[in-house]
Hints:
- The chain contains 11 helices and 8 strands.
- It has helices spanning 10-18, 29-33, 39-49, 63-76, 88-99, 112-121, 130-135, 140-154, 168-177, 186-191, 196-212; strands spanning 2-6, 24-26, 54-57, 80-85, 104-109, 125-128, 159-162, 181-184.
- Erythose-4-phosphate binds at residues 6, 26, 28, 107, 127, 129, 131-132, 163-164, 183.
Amino acid sequence: xxxxxxxxxxxxxxxxxxxxxxxxxxxxxxxxxxxxxxxxxxxxxxxxxxxxxxxxxxxxxxxxxxxxxxxxxxxxxxxxxxxxxxxxxxxxxxxxxxxxxxxxxxxxxxxxxxxxxxxxxxxxxxxxxxxxxxxxxxxxxxxxxxxxxxxxxxxxxxxxxxxxxxxxxxxxxxxxxxxxxxxxxxxxxxxxxxxxxxxxxxxxxxxxxxxxxxx
Length: 215
Ligand code: E4P
């Protein structure tokens, strides 16, 4: 399973990257709006730091505009993945960019039918938003199960990238289902390794070692 970090904050990305477990980054316009500097500079700095795929989103609503913005994003760095919203125009843009050999990430996915269309259009990654479904009292992980099964049925090559992750439980559930990628906010990233029994156990080991170390 690949781990992406879901942020445009360079410090957070640097910290996760230092662990040696980071496979890529996802950004979106809202995440970029929280950072200083121009979005182009921020994306450039992220893509320079992390060698894996870095998703950067278009904001045009028509296919032609999306393709134009996607090509401009690819000028920033070779590891940019063009993030395109799931709309009919978005599907046309995904098809066009795919034909030009440019990787895409179809975002704002909330249903299995949307997932099928994105795969048929040739999307490299598909981003279903589990947290935003949970917020509406709809089980987001049920959608991941459906999509993984459908993609296996037809051997679709599009990678399922679980997005809108809110907790370590989302990460373990996504892994259990067999999703290809999970994009994790920095806060959840740091929660993944922690357990109170680990802290307690370590504290006891060190205290006991203190009693015998000078023998
Ligand atoms: C990732 O690609 C999405 O932009 C992101 O996971 C959305 O998360 P949110 O629902 O917490 O904003």
